[in-house]
Write a structure and sequence with these properties.
Elements: H1 2-10, H2 13-32, H3 34-40, H4 47-54, E1 59-64, H5 70-84, E2 89-93, H6 97-113, E3 121-124, E4 128-131, E5 136-140, H7 146-149, E6 156-160, H8 167-173, E7 183-188, H9 195-203, E8 209-213, H10 223-233, H11 235-241, H12 256-262
Parallel strand pairs: 1-7, 1-8, 2-5, 2-6, 6-7
Antiparallel strand pairs: 3-4, 4-5
Helix pairs in contact: 2-3, 5-6, 10-11
């Protein structure tokens, strides 16, 4: 008798319509609030992660400690764009293909955690996903090749380990956002006081939404571990990897500050041009 009644209820058109309306309302809310997507895949964002997910900035830059959660939040932004921006093109770029694949794997893991979604994965491989709404997520290696330069109309460009991506490649990928007005997210730990990532963090002005997270800001990294790590790897590496300090490169002949003070505003330098 109970099973028959449940079957009758499941065929009730009013209940079916109400359930569909509830799902539609939830999806509408989730489209506006990406934090809801994080919660739906079983993640409780840190405050800085929630702030980043809520941000509407076109240019975002993350200066984060190792294991702070920067890749996790970036993968959620990629997945949210794919689910709620039909025909969106999301590119994941890293210095190596392996690193891009790792970030892409986090996207796939989050998608697989969804109990249900109106947008489904239509095609899937180790480097790309294409969704039923026409959105695509593509993982790319950090090499300036024709296959990378050929992309256009990018909705979201995520540059992982950005401090290790060359200036030439950064300048080559930025035009992908010109027509689409797409967003860029650069995330990294520091890698010396050089390169475009250091320049954009220190001199990029108000164009960037900046987020800085040290290991001490991460509740999942214990103070005991950090104390042991400081002794194990030494002060130089510890400051860079965990305190996100732009320390001098180990092979630098002259300190960055000394070079900057030696420059004359009336003479154009032969290096480091960001025009």
């Amino acid at each position: 008798m109970l099973s028959t009644r449940q079957g009758d209820l499941s065929r009730n058109p009013l209940l079916i319509a109400a359930a569909r309306n509830l799902v539609a309302r939830r999806q509408t809310e989730e489209a506006r609030h990406p934090v809801m997507l994080a919660e739906r895949v079983g993640l409780t964002p840190d405050r800085w992660q929630a702030d980043l997910l809520k941000s509407e900035a076109r240019q975002m830059i993350l200066l984060c400690s190792r294991q702070a959660g920067k890749s996790t939040v970036s993968s959620l932004l990629a997945l949210h764009a794919a689910l709620y921006q039909p025909m969106a093109l999301i590119l994941l770029l890293s210095p190596s293909l392996r690193q891009s694949q790792e970030l892409f794997r986090k996207v796939k893991d989050s998608y697989n955690m969804l109990a249900a979604s109106a947008v489904t994965a239509r095609e899937e491989s180790s480097l790309r996903m294409e969704f039923s709404n026409g959105a695509r997520i593509v993982a790319l290696p950090g090499k300036e090749e024709a296959t990378i330069r050929g992309f256009s109309g990018v909705s979201l460009l995520i540059v992982d380990e950005a401090a290790r991506v060359s200036d030439a490649l950064y300048q080559a990928v930025r035009p992908m956002l010109a027509v689409s007005g797409g967003r860029i997210l650069a995330l990294s730990t520091p890698f010396g006081r050089r390169g475009w990532f250091h320049h954009e963090w220190t001199e990029g002005g108000a164009l960037w939404h900046r987020t800085k997270v040290t290991a001490h800001d991460c509740p999942r990294i214990s103070r005991e571990w950090l104390a042991r790590e400081r002794k194990q790897i030494g002060e130089w590496w510890y400051r860079q990897e965990y305190e996100v300090a732009f320390v001098e490169s180990v092979d630098s002949v002259f300190a960055y500050d000394i070079i900057m003070r030696a420059l004359d505003a009336d003479v154009e330098p032969l290096f480091g041009s960001h025009s």
